[in-house]
Amino acid sequence: METVLLATRNRHKVEEIRAILGAGLRYRLLTDWPDAPSLAETGRTFHDNARLKVLQVLDWLETWETRGGLPGLAGVTWVLADDSGLEVDALGGAPGVDSARFAALDTGAPGNSADADNNAKLLRLLVGVPVGQRRARFRCVLALGRWPSEARAPELYCFEGICEGRIGLEPRGSGGFGYDPLFFPDGFDRTFAELGETVKNRISHRARALAALAAWWRARHGTEAVAGQP
Ligand code: IMP
What we know:
- The chain is of the alpha/beta class and 230 residues long.
- 32% of the residues lie in helices and 21% in strands.
- Strands 2-1-3-4-5-6 form a six-stranded mixed beta sheet, with helices on both faces.
- It binds inosinic acid.
């Protein structure tokens, strides 16, 4: 069984990834190593940022190799990163890659913003926009990098998933994270935060990107490997 190092500190994402990919893999978390780098997200697209996160982790592991290898890394053969966010048509695709720090864009505060602040800003910008014009989608890009890697040409694969929907008029529900209380996926009259993790993990952008990854994995490793619902 192979071991994947999940390159995210977002507890919710870790839970979703583990729940969807299932028991066919072992997982390690970046938080298992307190000195792991914080990952810069300076790209202009989700694709750029997902790749960037994996490359930063591979670089970090590489620097440890010169010191005899990172303690506790034994068995890790892949690094997996996710970059994701919300695109709202009426806002020209915003918040997009700035989803996590949407509110802080106005204040210049460092780091990510509280979910409640991001949601409040989104609702403020959409005041007066009618229901029919509140189309939006969550997009997720996963980048999977092989470890150990060839420093100049890392073996890296990307998988994308999209979940179409619309933005509600007020927050609803208490599950999930981020923009979940505002997002009605197509075909449902409840938000991600109301639908609960079983439904979300079946239809979400992350579930779809993970299904693409799982299909690729099965083709490469055989049918016994990871779950990932289509
Ligand atoms: P990242 O960690 O840089 O990829 O930022 C992702 C941000 O997009 C999160 O902080 C959330 O604000 C938002 N986001 C991504 N996926 C989801 C989701 O499944 N539900 C709600 N918000 C999400």
